[in-house]
Protein 1
Amino acid sequence: MQTKFYVVGIGPGAPELMTPQAHAALQEAEVIAGYGTYLKLIKPLFPDKEYLQTGMTGEVKRCQLALEQAQAGKIVAMVSSGDAGIYGMAGLVLQLAEGLPVEVVPVPGITAASSGAALLGAPLMHDFAVISLSDRLTPWDKIEKRLLAAAEADFCVVLYNPRSHGRPDLLNRACQLLGRHKGPETPVGIVKNIGREGEQAIVTTLAELDENLVDMFSTVFIGNSQTYIQQTVAGLKIVTPRGYLEEAAQ
Amino acid sequence: MQTKFYVVGIGPGAPELMTPQAHAALQEAEVIAGYGTYLKLIKPLFPDKEYLQTGMTGEVKRCQLALEQAQAGKIVAMVSSGDAGIYGMAGLVLQLAEGLPVEVVPVPGITAASSGAALLGAPLMHDFAVISLSDRLTPWDKIEKRLLAAAEADFCVVLYNPRSHGRPDLLNRACQLLGRHKGPETPVGIVKNIGREGEQAIVTTLAELDENLVDMFSTVFIGNSQTYIQQTVAGLKIVTPRGYLEEAAQ
């Protein structure tokens, strides 16, 4: 017998940013698995489910336990914040499900690049690179190479996991690398706790960026050479133009 | 008086991939503006709105007309497919609203990188670059530079606008550039008509990619050096591992 295993991106946390498809998958599931912080956001919406709660690390064990439930015939949903397919659990579940009679169904969610950009204005209107600064699973020299390549080719850059307990200096090092090809006045946006209590959006520049403003729940946006900061009735916003006005003026 | 102007990402088109926040913004709006194809998806859900329909190009004019409605005191929502902040209208609306008593409120949506990745499996579990192949607003040499940089730094790559009427050869040229640093066996995924009639996901490789499979409604995913194709109970899927299994094996 073949059972479904949903890997569900719940978005940044607020129910109004979770898609109806994600809601339906959680509704259909008998067991909901995931990291405690995310389950806390889900439980009030689905109080009658069986929950499989685990710590932040130990991802392999967590997925294996959840897959055992699926093999026992239960419909499982594993939740990731943001999009389960972007630094989430979709890949690991697929890998571990190889050869098992389990259908892995990824359900997309709003990732921090999208939800954070909306709070900041429109920083990602042009080509962009998404880079995680976590060196737990990726050698730092690979991260470094990607930062330099993205900066040199004038990508907008979105940094996930910009700060960790053990390595508080990662963001400063990343900004130094980006600064080799991006000017000090390049707009930088920091968003924290998107769609949750304590939501905050900060607009600054590469030169002025204070890494103490950035925590583990932050996402950092760095503009390209065209990006600018615009005063609006709702405060400072970051805009990366895409060339429509230049085209219209021709 | 200050009025709200929502720039709403409606996701790929299926109502189950539109967030409740996007739904609420459209509900609140008095005027809904956008390209005809997208409005057709929205009208059945909100039959009693005033609609401001325009062609595919002429974006500046379209935004100006919609901003005039906002200045006349009406709550306006302009829709983009996917995420309004990723190759959508959020930036242009902000630019054109400069100095006006209009509060521009971007509402994030599920972009094709997320929705397409979910259909393909988990191709974007590691750092990735999003690049539009449209050279209407961007010089081709800039696009070329970004393709090469992304390939050299071993990013996964997502290509938006991989085909246009006037330039059918863009995708082949892009793949040749990517192929300077990515092997011929690199997995490639093509998704079409996500969440709509005719939805299709194709798994192939850089060497085997047939650009005739790609149309204007497609998004193309190219793996990094670790990406592989996995046989599953639901067919071939693309997986980019993130290193959890290697870490656990240590």
Note: Chain A has a mean pLDDT of 94.
Protein 2
Amino acid sequence: MQTITRVAVDAMGGDNAPLEIVKGAVDAVVSHDDIKVFLVGQEEAVRAELKKYQFPAERIEVVDAPEVIEMAEPPVQAIRKKKQSSMVIGMNMVKQKEADAFVSAGSTGAVLVGGQTIVGRIKGIKRPPLAPLIPTEAGASLLIDCGANVDARPEHLVQFARMGSIYMENVVGVKNPRVAIVNIGAEEEKGNALVKETFPLLKECHDINFVGSIEAREIPHGGADVIVCEAFVGNVILKLYEGVSSTLIGVVKQGLMSTLKSKIGAALALPALKKTLKSFDSGEYGGAPLLGLNGLVVKTHGSSKAAEITNSIYQCVTFSKENINGIIKERIADLNQNEQE
Amino acid sequence: MQTITRVAVDAMGGDNAPLEIVKGAVDAVVSHDDIKVFLVGQEEAVRAELKKYQFPAERIEVVDAPEVIEMAEPPVQAIRKKKQSSMVIGMNMVKQKEADAFVSAGSTGAVLVGGQTIVGRIKGIKRPPLAPLIPTEAGASLLIDCGANVDARPEHLVQFARMGSIYMENVVGVKNPRVAIVNIGAEEEKGNALVKETFPLLKECHDINFVGSIEAREIPHGGADVIVCEAFVGNVILKLYEGVSSTLIGVVKQGLMSTLKSKIGAALALPALKKTLKSFDSGEYGGAPLLGLNGLVVKTHGSSKAAEITNSIYQCVTFSKENINGIIKERIADLNQNEQE
């Protein structure tokens, strides 16, 4: 008997909703027969999009959610007031075990608030981190935490390191993933107060492969598989990554188009160039999981197209089949519960 | 009467010393007649390099410094023990007013320690920040602070903002420079404890053009002229900038070389591409000033070639002629002294 992973998808979230979201969901169920998608959103709009495609009807279900949470809304208020929004309804499905996971390209703030207040933390987990995969020369690394809860404490970072390690090993398939803490030098005595306090605690974790500090310069070279940092620094890394990449690609394009000779060269070189640049495109890796909750919540980029939505849905399947929450509970949450007793 | 700016240059610092350092110094005095350089280093090695060039002899003087501080040495110990090193001798020349500035491509830690303990802080300046210019689409922005003193307090960041503003206006020539604080969202209520405390203080500074928060994504687009942050975050930004740029340029090259067709295209496109990428090369902007000292100390990249050394020496001329230390003293240090009384 095959297990079906049930994924609730926020059909109204992000810049390209519902068009690209619906397309991504259809692609997911067409290409994988172990997925069922609940498209949560304004029913009429969602059904109008669905009409464009052929797909196994029993594996896409539309769940009506008349309200929409906008990108700029204050998240706490939005989650509290808009009970009929796609985000609140989708997360409640995870809470009620009607879905295994929830995927949204909507407001990051609302996803974080909803994840914690509706889906809820696994007992013993102190703070759920948002952990996107970022592209590197070597493949991809997990950057944990990029959420909204800044000023973390050392014990939070230790839990991030463990959850990140479990995720990379069991969902992404990296054996014995190298875990490093973001620092301003390679030596143990370097760093700010938080890093200096966290470093010895990570060294004591025998269930992870802690390799020490990583300087930001080494991140794009793939210097570690799990990159641990508090959310302010993580946010800076994530957004600077995007900013520098898009600026440089713009500069390269401008260079290629600046003379007649270079334009001819560009026409010849572009197909190959696009192919290698694709390996550096974060969209390939799907969304960022919000870990440590009673169910999986995945936040994908606000500008997500269908391919990213599809990849985010695939992520949920491995997460669910590998029983990641069970492992997190067993290896982290229970441990911390015992320590506190 | 023409004023001559006297710059002491660490002939032994960095990966390409003394070869590129000496070449950079020669280029500086040949192209500008208002500069005198003291090449501080192992006399024999420096003179052997100097022999290769023709230059106005009265404007380069060799100062013997038999000891060398290595990149990996613990900085405090190195500065304390190696009294005959190029770094200690060069900084003492600034302290004794025998030189207006000191330029080094050597160990960042040693430059920071030497700057504070030998050259010394301007009275009223709480912490001297290291402030590199980073390339953007629009030109360059000053990233302040990237030093080694992490866990800054709000009053430090306020001084950084003011010193950075003075530097960009008077040395780089940006009128009314836009000052922003690095944050994880544009709204005033966002941020970690440090940013939230600093934000209202910056709003009250009527001598700077404070434009609010800047997200890391906007930095490469040139979203502000002075980018204020504490040193841990600054260090992460600076090094990630380098890491993502070098990785992406590598990916682009790999793409261009991956097929026969693309190789032909690359041959046609490369000259124009190199020209535009040069505008995104931090070497063009010289080194990072360590501000707030009784004299100027400039740290250039460890891998500096002659052109970067020359640019770093030019920086010192403007700094000295525009009397930046006088302005810092008048506008920041005295103000803080008064506040404390």
Note: Chain A is about 45% helix and 15% strand.
